[in-house]
Protein: Penicillin-binding protein 1A
Amino acid sequence: MFKRIKNKYIRYIAIAIYFLIVLVCAIQLNFLGLFGYSPTKKDITMPSVNISTELYTADSVLIGRYFDEDRNPVAFDSISKNVINALVATEDVRFYKHSGVDFLGLGSGIVSTLSGDRRGASTITQQLAKNLYRTRYNKSGGLLGKIPGVGLIVTKFKEWMTAYKLESRYEKNEIITMYLNTVSFSNNSYGIQTAARRYFSKNASELSINEAAVLVGMLKGTTIYNPMRNLDKSRERRNVVLTQMEKAKYIDQTQVDQLSKEPLVLRTENKDIHAGEDSYLRAAVERWLEKWADENDMDIYKDGLKIYTTINSKLQKHAEEAVAKQMQVLQRRLKNAWGSEEPWRDLSGKVIPGFIENLVKKTDYYKFLVKKYDQRTDSIDFYLNRKKEMEVFSWKGERMREKVEMSTVDSIKYYVTMLNTGVMSMDPYSAEIKVWVGGIDHQFFKYDHVNQSKRQAGSTFKPFVYLAALESGMTPCDQIQDKPVTIKIDKGDSIEVWEPKNADWNFSYRDMSLRWAMARSVNSITVQLTEKVGADKIVEAAHRVGIESKLSPVASIGLGPNDVSVFEMVNGYATMMNHGERVTPILVSRIEDYDGKVIATFKPERKQVVDKQDAWLMTYMLRGGMEEPGGTSQALWEYDLFDKENEIGGKTGTSSEYVDGWYMGVTKDLVTAVWVGCDDRNIHFKNSQTGEGSKTALPIFGLFMESVYKDKQLGYTQGKFPAPTVEITKKYKCETPRPPREEVVSDSTAVDDEMLIDGLEDVQNGGTTQEEGLSTSGDDDASDVLSTNNDAAAIRPRDSLGFGD
Structure:
């Protein structure tokens, strides 16, 4: 058909145009899979960009981010003019004069390259096409992309086509804004806003000429010109950009001379930068939203959401400070208790043979050495014991980090003796979680001790026994004698006997009211109540108010042999504070999309599960720990907590051998749980004077509440518990006789290790206490080995056989 065109030059032009049209169509349609993916009209109209999700407290403090690429897009008018000028001058000086492809610049670039001065000829629009649609990735290449040279030509042609599409769809300012919002600035910083915060702790709109020149200069090579890694080269590149800006008439030579002499000063300590780092709270919210995200086809790592938690930033800070202050004291105490002795002991007090060796064998590093050296023990032992510099968690180090010389074996010994904690505080009426401290440091100890960890509750479980007793018809004034108790267990072919002991190993033989007995945490009376009410009723009551873990209905249930979480215990106590209405704790209040539209809100489920009278009576009994003679909460008098007739209730708890220390504290506004212990249950304190809950966990609660009351801006005031909302028909005002001499009551019952009850093995072996295996993410990261699962590290035999308060 081209023969009809008589003029050969016009004919050649027509043929070229024809084949160009065919080529464009073939590329666009990916004919026979030869050309690979090309952006469609829909892709151009709605370009997809991964945007980081931001995590906020209830009072709008940024506390975390989720991202594959840390990006926070901003509008054109939120970008400093200095950045725009620097970018155009350096990357595409004719940006405002071409339509996506600058053939004049392309020709100039070819000439410069041939003369030895290599410089790119891609326009900003072409670079945007490459960044947005990944035109140079393997999946975009097609079959022709596998042919050397041909693939590059096809890819370049597709970039030209895409650039023209972008130019026809968007204004110049929109294109340059998209480019600056998508380009990488190294250090996992994508987009100009994130880069401005990362390197200079300011917004993109506030960048100076020099700062803009530094960031634009990085685009030539984000590694070689990274100011955090190569300050001198970054400064040299900055000065090149300044020169280009002068050539483009954006600044004059005087400014270049002055600015190029200035030092390059980075400011990288902005709190927003570190908000992207992992934390217990960030990880907890991710787990919390896993089902919601799946059901709503959302990806919190890419969709640019704003997630608002119920956490109060000031309360959270007070809790973290209380933890840091007390845990330093406790860590020194534990170290001093054992001195040079090895602390990993069995129930008889003997050192557990091969304890450290077994932990070493569970590390990835050990498995790597075994494979590399074909199980040659001499080589393996050499590397396991070779000292090297490493960074470890340390209370005395800067930002709790310290560089030390340790071997792999040394680091495991160091971390296995590290005490950890879990703290949660919640408004029992709104169900909003106000504080979440999952441990001492998430970087070193990943396992969350609020809702992932489960430990023996000790005597903090006793209130559920007393709740079941009230529900059976008893009153706080009913009396039971503190006396020896003998429990006979029929095992079919034999009868076994358990005789539980009190904390001080003595019995007073007094008739004690239920309130007084719970306040003093008397084991003998708790066991008698369990026998009277029935262990199955106690299990039912505990499950009803918020304990979701499996509970074995054994005679010792009130002494806390079952493993439960801090989260569950807060929920259970909150039900009693909330007039018997159980609420599902809420960690996230609402979620907004990138445009600020609320796309999800979260409200607690509510269900009346306890009679209002019995619930109020339980809060009254919890106050007994402070008000009754010898109550186990009375160490709180050491703190400034009791102005204006303030009322505080609570319950201490300590498991056998002082492995777990607990304190459950309730005020008129908050329910707070604190757990303290080592992740490995074989490491613990020696005696009640150092290791009981009133000495380990209670001080954290005391320090926390003291700081909360002193912070007047928070609005948490001292005062009395709410009055009952129903008529109280049961007798509860009964005066406790004051003994002539006030005894010091231990909160730890090292209950008789001869307690053998059929079914207790189920408590130890079933559900949460079985070993789940250890893992490590690196050579010497023993903290990961020991914190992957707090129950994973060598569960002690018969660990559930001794409990107490």
User: Anything to note?
Assistant: Residues 135-139, 749-781, 787-804 have pLDDT under 50 and may be disordered. Residues 425 and 672 are 4 Å apart (CA to CA). The first strand starts at residue 53 and ends at 56.
